[in-house]
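Annex B. Sample input.
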Amino acid sequence: MKRELKRLEKIRRVKQIKRWKMKIQNDLNNYIFFEKEIAEKEDENIGIGAQVIDDMPKGQGGDCKSKTEQQALRLIHELEELRRAKKAIEKAVEEMNNDTKDYFYMRYEKEFTLVKICRELFITDRTYRRINNRIIEKVGKEMGLID
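Annex B, continued. Sample output.
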């Protein structure tokens, strides 16, 4: 019974790590768009504030928020997530060695293909994947998702 529980816990943990890695990979892939996305969401959030009308309810507290409040809260949460991910990626990049920084720049800022990166850095596709996994792990640690 204990052995089975440990096995199930390990499976659950592995699945959770895979989800985190997919999220981090997605954040890395979208990193070059973060500045634009943050600016757009800030503008959108300001626009929501301008929608308040005098006869509109000013907030009901609890879980019963107006549509405008819900939209504003959602945008604020999305902004926080974007800023947190951007900060974690930038902090992880600061701590990388020059070769890994070169890889990061080519892969996530210039969006080079696997083949082009391997040619430029004189690495194999296996090394390419190892470097990418190290970056994911480093960013995950900065985000507090991976131990």
